Automatic annotation (TrEMBL):
<keyword id="KW-0560">Oxidoreductase</keyword>
<dbReference type="Pfam" id="PF00890">
    <property type="entry name" value="FAD_binding_2"/>
</dbReference>
<dbReference type="GO" id="GO:0016491">
    <property type="term" value="F:oxidoreductase activity"/>
</dbReference>
<dbReference type="InterPro" id="IPR050315">
    <property type="entry name" value="FAD-oxidoreductase_2"/>
</dbReference>
<dbReference type="InterPro" id="IPR012831">
    <property type="entry name" value="CobZ"/>
</dbReference>
<dbReference type="InterPro" id="IPR003953">
    <property type="entry name" value="FAD-dep_OxRdtase_2_FAD-bd"/>
</dbReference>
<keyword id="KW-0274">FAD</keyword>
<protein>
    <submittedName>
        <fullName>Tricarballylate dehydrogenase</fullName>
    </submittedName>
</protein>
<keyword id="KW-0285">Flavoprotein</keyword>
<dbReference type="InterPro" id="IPR036188">
    <property type="entry name" value="FAD/NAD-bd_sf"/>
</dbReference>
<dbReference type="InterPro" id="IPR027477">
    <property type="entry name" value="Succ_DH/fumarate_Rdtase_cat_sf"/>
</dbReference>
<feature type="domain" description="FAD-dependent oxidoreductase 2 FAD-binding">
    <location>
        <begin position="17"/>
        <end position="440"/>
    </location>
</feature>
Length: 473
């Protein structure tokens, strides 16, 4: 099989068993898995080669269960503990049977990934609390994506960049062809089976505003600008059964100075649990110490979205220095809270009153950021339940926060074989989905670090293998 050459149009004439639409983790896992089954695979990535990989290029790790220490993970992380973490962050808004299915399947992910060349870092320590639960890719998501692309090329997957699928044509419950724009022209591309792994609609400003209202204008998109949701819309227009709330998704608090798109992981602000967070009226609005940061960071995007002008400020003092991964942007710094308030454009006296109330409510305790410690407030509104320390040691630091959307949870329903369900109650004959476009089958709201990559890897592998088997039949 011929790898991609933008000047070569052979792929338009060749016959394909499996068409994979998307270019990130889930799509690549699907392409590799289908190729392992002997299928002739065509992968269409809408982005240019330099931007390939979608949101996956911004990732760092995936969460996986393991019954004993591994080469890349410490101790054990059981199915029940993993599920409890998912259950807690989603507030019970998850399909337990489907979630446990993904969790159990995650046990084999790192070995399969390593078999395709992915390398992992040693187990992490420190305040992220992830060394036992999450396997980190050596070189991050970009290295992961590059490794998978090299593996796909080596195995004979046909890859075409800047090939954007615009429409899908069905005959009843069966996919017939996609309408694809490439080199300024539209083409009909057919295959025996289709895998859609092209992400959610988080980069589509109009769709975000349709779901969220005008507040979405102040959101930043942490990942790729290419996730416009066109294939999700095409599936729904072809009578796919939808799942998920369009206002729910992976939304975190990021530095307000971040770019509109593609800021990635380095724009996240991780000091929330070490200080207080106030809105632009100088008021606290949520418990900053509710749980370990990887289990709570993804609620803060929605919290910030609910504040006036969709902005907030994370404030710490000298005691927090060195205890968290800083944003790529330096914080505002001042020797007094009054000076910091002015730099952040927060009303001075309301902020001083908030800090005074908070400091007075802090109870004596033994501070330990590696555990759910006994440092809490009593009498504050809201209370801070862990890691509460007085803000009284200059210099003081402040990060402005905006809502950063990673991916959306509205998607299409699938079964355990990644086969798409139709509104009629039937299953699509030859259509499979993986990754963000079906993550709403497991995630109703909230997020726990690394789980999106788990879902994409598990269902990407399944979708590719099942699409290949379907094509043979």
């Amino acid at each position: 099989m011929q790898n991609n050459n933008q000047a070569n149009s052979d792929w338009l004439r060749n016959s394909h068993d499996v068409l994979v639409i998307g270019g990130g983790n889930a799509a690549l896992c699907a392409a590799l898995s289908a190729r392992e089954q002997g299928a002739r695979v065509l992968l269409l990535e809408s982005a240019p080669k330099v931007w390939r990989g979608g949101n996956s290029s911004h990732t760092r790790n995936l969460r996986c269960m393991h019954k004993a220490p591994t080469a890349v993970l410490s101790d054990a992380y059981t199915e029940d503990e993993f599920f409890e973490d998912v259950w807690r962050v989603t507030g019970g808004q998850t399909n337990e049977e489907m979630a446990r299915f993904v969790i159990r399947a995650s046990e084999t992910c790192t070995d399969w990934m390593a078999g395709h060349g992915v390398r992992f870092q040693p187990s992490l320590g420190g305040t992220l609390h992830l060394g036992r639960t999450n396997a980190f890719f050596l070189g991050g998501g970009k290295a992961l994506v590059n490794t998978y692309y090299k593996a796909a090329e080596r195995m004979g997957v046909t890859i075409v960049y800047e090939a954007e699928a615009l429409e899908l044509s069905f005959q009843g419950n069966r996919f017939d062809h996609a309408v694809v724009e490439w080199q300024g022209k539209t083409h009909k591309v057919s295959a025996r089976s289709l895998v859609v792994a092209s992400g959610g609609f988080e980069s589509n400003r109009e769709w975000l505003e349709e779901a969220w209202g005008p507040v979405a204008r102040n959101f930043r998109i942490r990942g790729t600008r290419f996730n416009q949701g066109k294939m999700l819309r095409a599936l729904l227009d072809n009578d796919a059964l939808a799942i998920g709330d369009p206002t729910q998704g992976h939304a975190v608090a990021i530095d307000a100075r971040s770019p509109e798109y593609d800021g990635g992981i380095v724009t996240r602000v991780d000091c929330v649990s070490l200080g207080i967070v106030v809105n632009n009226q100088g008021k606290r609005f949520y418990d900053e110490g509710e749980d370990f940061w990887p289990k709570r960071y993804a609620i803060w995007g929605r919290l910030v979205a609910g504040q006036p002008d969709q902005i907030a400020y994370s404030i710490t003092d000298a005691k927090a220095v060195g205890r968290f991964m800083p944003s790529v942007f330096p914080p505002e710094q001042a020797n007094t809270l009054e000076e910091l308030a002015r730099k952040l454009n927060i009303p001075v006296h309301p902020l001083l009153n908030t800090v005074k109330e908070y400091n007075a409510a802090v109870q004596p305790g033994d501070f330990d950021h590696s555990v759910l410690d006994n440092c809490r407030t009593q009498g504050a509104t809201p209370e801070k339940t862990h890691w509460a320390q007085t803000l009284d040691t200059p210099p003081y630091f402040g990060y402005p926060l905006r809502t950063g959307i990673t991916f959306t949870y509205l998607g299409v329903q699938v079964d355990h074989c990644a086969r798409m369900k139709m509104n009629s109650g039937d299953m699509a004959d030859n259509v499979f989905a993986a990754g963000e476009v079906m993550a709403g089958n497991i995630l109703g709201k909230g997020y726990v670090a690394g789980f999106g990559m788990t879902i994409g890897t598990v269902f990407g592998r399944i979708a590719g293998a099942e699409a290949a088997r379907n094509a043979k039949n």
